[in-house]
Amino acid sequence: MKTLLVIKKQEYEWLIDLFPGVHPLLVPICNKPFIEFLVDFAILAGSNALRIVSDGVLEDVEHYCENGSRWGVEISYGSMRPADDTHTVIEKNRRFCLEERVIIISGFLFIRYNKKSEYASLFASLPSGELLSCPNGSISLTGTSTTKTGTPGTLPFSLAALDSIGKYYELSMEILSTGLTHYVIPGYSSEENCYIGRNVVIPKSAEIIKPVIIGNNVQIMTNSIIDKNSVIGSNVIIDRESVISGSIVIDNTYIGEHLEVKNKIAAGNLLIDPQSGTSIVMEDPHLLTTMTQSRVAGALLRRIVHAVGATFLIVLQLLPWLLLRPILGMQGKWKRKREQHYTGLPGKNVTLTNTTIEGTGAASAFAKALSLDRFTLLFNVLIGKLALIGNLPLPVTPAIRRLPNSHEGYRPAVFSYAEAEEWPEIGIDAEIVEHYYAVHSDPLKDIAMTQKALFHRTH
Amino acid sequence: MIFHLDTSTTLPLGVVLLKKRVDATNSIELQKAFAQWLQQTNNFVFDCTELDFIDSSGLGAIVSCLRKALEHHGDVKLAALGPKVAMVFELTKAKKLFSIFSECSEAIQSFVTVSTT
Known about the structure:
The complex is a heterodimer. Chain A has 3 domains: 2-162, Spore Coat Polysaccharide Biosynthesis Protein SpsA, Chain A, CATH 3.90.550; 186-281, UDP N-Acetylglucosamine Acyltransferase, domain 1; 296-458, no CATH class. Chain A is α/β, with parallel strands linked by helices. Chain A is built from 14 helices and 30 strands. In chain A, the strands form 8 sheets. Chain A has an 8-stranded mixed beta sheet. Chain A has a 6-stranded mixed beta sheet with strand order 5-4-1-6-9-8. In chain A, α9 runs antiparallel to α11 and α9 (296-330) runs parallel beside α14. Chain A is elongated. Chain B has a single domain (5-116), classed as Transcription Regulator spoIIAA. Chain B is 42% helix and 26% strand. Chain B contains 4 helices and 5 strands. A 5-stranded mixed beta sheet of chain B has the order 1-2-3-4-5, with helices on both faces. Chain B starts with a strand and ends with a helix. Chains A and B meet through β23 of A and α2 and α3 of B.
């Protein structure tokens, strides 16, 4: 027995915007990629080979499933034209379909099955032709039965169309509440209706109410509640005192503190109401707004104020810099590195010379106290390449090829708001503080913040 | 956005029509305006019919308005929340703080009912 999966792009492309970065065939249903349910079913039905045919790009699916050795089945991939019907696809895959009976699963649909049922002998005995259909597709069988032909009465599987976010949610909830034992669900299950993955941190004050599925690398913070009918994906953080109830939290999602996610789907920074299809963007853990560009007049005033501040600092630091720079240079304590940094404008970068003062001698300590390592950067403020205070300039690296979305409102500067507030200079904490001041600061506040940054760098 | 208080309902309350966005750019403006409105009345209906977006700053401003109104023995009631705005109120549990009505007229009527009982 073999299985041929025929799935057209137009049937699943509605999922692309909802779960960006995840191929629709790999979208998790109860933490298990959709395609794996089909693979499991094909294996239960006695298939030793599976061919996935689509008019869409299958690269991610191919990368995930590879040749199927993980499941002990041979998986291959094929392409088709959008206009091809199932008959044409079978013709184009004649070699695959020739020798054995083939189960043809056509359409983006979910097959409800029970892993405890005996499907291999059933499919071997069923006559060829369409077995089941739904508005989204069908299951049919080719070839002649190898055993005594049975009559397709009530089949021990059914189809569910997957054509909207509401259906996706309903299906997940259906599996969670009634069908967990019907499928192979990832995670460790020491008790019924509770599956928990690896590296899950659950504090004593958190509450977990069954049925629930939790993926790998999940942190549930203090006093949080994971209420019944919740699916928490992998690499998820549920911050303190938040409640997740009847909801699906997709992989790589952060739920901020004191939030209540009830009957929703959280995917990345998107929160979707499956009933209405309405979605909101959680811009950051504090739901801060998307940055809006400040008015030209305001930006000009800020630039002038920053330039005046930079000039003042240049005058102040010039003499110490002229004295200490050669001394530290000769001692090998003055290290310089030229690097490309993002400017915040698409496709435009700036080359900056970052200085590090090493050692613990008197000259080093004095130079650090005066922030002489930033002296040369101040000239970039005068020509408008940097702000006096803003974000720590983000270097261009092969790992970060473009400015991440989280850096919206990014303004590279000599000093950072995080330095002024004595927050960690890198990481999400710094992003939050810099994001906050990007909205709430004004030119005069910037001068005050620069003074704070200078003071805190000294101490 | 410039915030206006409409006191033409002949009732001792003000209706504020929130338009488009209440976010970090105008939340302080709303709070300042509200402090002045409190000199005229202490009961308010925030009509959200035309409100498309609210962020944490805007939410904070509206909660701050409620707190100030309560301090003056009044109330702030919300009306006609759009689906996206309602989701923010639900997500942040702020909906538990407010009386929320589907229509502005219902919110106004609720003040009448309270004052007559």
